């Protein structure tokens, strides 16, 4: 075939159209949004967020009153039920008072007996004092008799000496001399008897004084009411009356009854838990903040609280009143043991106690255990 017959070559195909890259402006917009969000977040943190710390790990608590009997016995009455509101002094339950009543009556009888015994001791004191006075009189009488006997003996001696001097000249008869000798001997005997009686009087006086001192020691320095025996009996009576009063269990505080687990006829022992009374007007919040949040938290700082029960629309005013003595893990039943080779640091939480405004609690009562959100305003120092 000749060259004139060769067909012309086909024209090259046009290149495909180039697509425009529109992602650049999108990335710019996204970057601007992120930057704007970062700026807004920074400004919020700087102006607002840095002045507060918050947590939703917070719960309502209260110092509940445990109702436990102080005397044993069978329960005859239970006057309250769970969820019932009570006032301080209201009767919650009654334990059979029969045994306590008998014990109180016995103690009262013992007090009466002790009082009479001490009154008898005081009367004996007076009697023994009179006996001491009588022995003093006997002693004085014995001294007078001794003086008289000594005088009689001296007179008899003088008479005898005179008659013996005259007997040699015959001026005094033998009979008269004999009479003088007898009188002298009689005076000597009377003197000896009087001395013996005086010694007996002294001994009797000492014996009476000893009896009086021994009896007076039982009643020394106090009247009947202040006597130790009477006071001991009175203390026993007071204890018996106290046990009798304890057969009636009363509410120690205002609150709501919870966990009632006692029934009529049940025999209870001292210290067994019958129920609890929750003081709903005195509840508080324990908020568990992370340790890294507590650098600027101080007692007295205001707190804003909300409850899941009422929602975010109901706000409670609170105040930080203190910090727990340790973290929750430190007081756990099985504390964490960190002295291991594969230890990993975990941020701990420390309970912060928050008091709630009483008016807010009155308007919107809370119950123990409810979840709360707490936000502490970090007031600058």
Structure description:
With 381 residues, the protein is an alpha+beta fold. It folds into three domains: 53-63 and 281-377, Elongation Factor Tu (Ef-tu), domain 3 (Beta Barrel), CATH 2.40.30.170; 65-97 and 245-278, OB fold (Dihydrolipoamide Acetyltransferase, E2P); 100-241, Helix Hairpins. It contains five helices and 14 strands. The protein has helices at residues 23-47, 98-167, 174-219, 228-245, 358-363, and strands at residues 52-61, 65-67, 73-78, 85-86, 91-95, 248-250, 255-258, 267-268, 275-278, 284-290, 302-307, 311-323, 349-356, 371-377. The protein has a six-stranded antiparallel beta barrel. Helix 2 runs antiparallel to helix 4 (228-245).
Feature tags:
single chain, 381 residues, alpha+beta, OB fold (Dihydrolipoamide Acetyltransferase, E2P), Helix Hairpins, six-stranded antiparallel barrel, four-stranded antiparallel sheet, 5 helices
């Amino acid at each position: 075939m000749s060259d004139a017959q060769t067909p012309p070559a086909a024209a090259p195909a046009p290149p495909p159209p180039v697509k425009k890259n529109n992602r650049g402006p999108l990335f710019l917009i996204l970057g601007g949004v992120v930057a704007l969000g970062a700026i807004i977040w920074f400004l919020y943190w700087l102006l607002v967020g840095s002045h507060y710390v918050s947590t939703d790990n917070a719960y309502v608590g209260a110092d509940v009153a445990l109702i436990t009997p102080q005397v044993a016995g069978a329960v005859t009455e239970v006057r309250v039920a769970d969820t019932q509101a009570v006032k301080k002094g209201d009767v919650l339950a009654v334990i059979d008072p029969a045994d306590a009543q008998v014990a109180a009556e016995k103690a009262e009888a013992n007090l009466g007996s002790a009082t009479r015994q001490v009154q008898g001791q005081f009367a004996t004191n007076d009697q023994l004092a009179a006996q001491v006075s009588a022995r003093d009189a006997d002693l004085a009488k014995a001294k007078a008799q001794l003086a008289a006997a000594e005088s009689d003996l001296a007179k008899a001696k003088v008479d005898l000496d005179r008659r013996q001097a005259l007997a040699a000249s015959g001026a005094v008869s033998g009979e008269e001399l004999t009479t003088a000798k007898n009188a002298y001997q009689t005076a000597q005997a009377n003197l000896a008897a009087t001395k013996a009686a005086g010694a007996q009087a002294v001994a009797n006086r000492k014996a009476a004084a000893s009896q009086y001192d021994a009896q007076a020691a039982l009643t020394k320095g106090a009247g009947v009411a202040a006597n130790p025996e009477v006071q001991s009996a009175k203390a026993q009576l007071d204890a018996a009356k106290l046990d009798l009063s304890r057969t009636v269990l009363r509410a120690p505080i205002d609150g709501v009854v919870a966990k009632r687990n006692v029934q009529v006829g049940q025999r209870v022992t001292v210290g067994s838990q019958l129920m609890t009374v929750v003081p709903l007007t005195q509840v508080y919040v324990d908020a568990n903040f992370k340790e890294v949040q507590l650098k600027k938290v101080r007692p007295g700082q205001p707190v804003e609280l909300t409850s899941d029960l009422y929602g975010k629309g109901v706000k409670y005013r609170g105040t930080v009143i203190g910090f727990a003595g340790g973290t929750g893990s430190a007081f756990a039943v099985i504390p964490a043991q960190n002295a291991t080779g594969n230890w990993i640091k975990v941020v701990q939480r420390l309970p912060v106690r928050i008091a709630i405004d009483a008016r807010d609690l009155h308007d919107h009562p809370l119950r123990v255990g409810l979840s709360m959100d707490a936000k502490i305003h970090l007031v600058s120092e």
